[in-house]
Write a structure and sequence with these properties.
By secondary structure, the protein is an alpha+beta fold. It has two domains: 55 residues, no CATH class; 58 residues, no CATH class. Strands 1-2 form a two-stranded antiparallel ribbon. Helix 1 runs parallel beside helix 2 and helix 3 packs across helix 4. The longest helix is centred in the N-terminal third of the chain and has 18 residues.
Length: 130
Amino acid sequence: MVRQQEGNWFQSDTPYGKLFHAELFPGRENSGKLVTLIKQQARLYAEDIRSGCVIIDGPPGIGCPVISACAGTDLGLIVTEPSLMGLHDLKRVLGTLASLPRAGSNLHQQNRYLSGRNKGNPGICCIRGH
């Protein structure tokens, strides 16, 4: 078996700080591993500069890259469109997050906090543009 490169990861400077990102080559399947590698590099950098926060912008869906992006997180923000399909996908993502040990326990805590504020949809809030 010949080991093949699945993609490249990068560390870039932006006006807002460091950005860790990657490019998965077309037809490759190890996107979850690439996400894990990027998160590891971002955490190492955050430790070096003594930052207590790493912001992860995860991919859409519920597959391996989403699970890799959410694993070990303390807080998540899920953005969806206001449609039946958006609600369907939101429920799938919430179910995926609930299955992760750390994210799932925090999800349940947030649901208890928000449940009285949003007409029976625990953890769901609406942010309107202007």
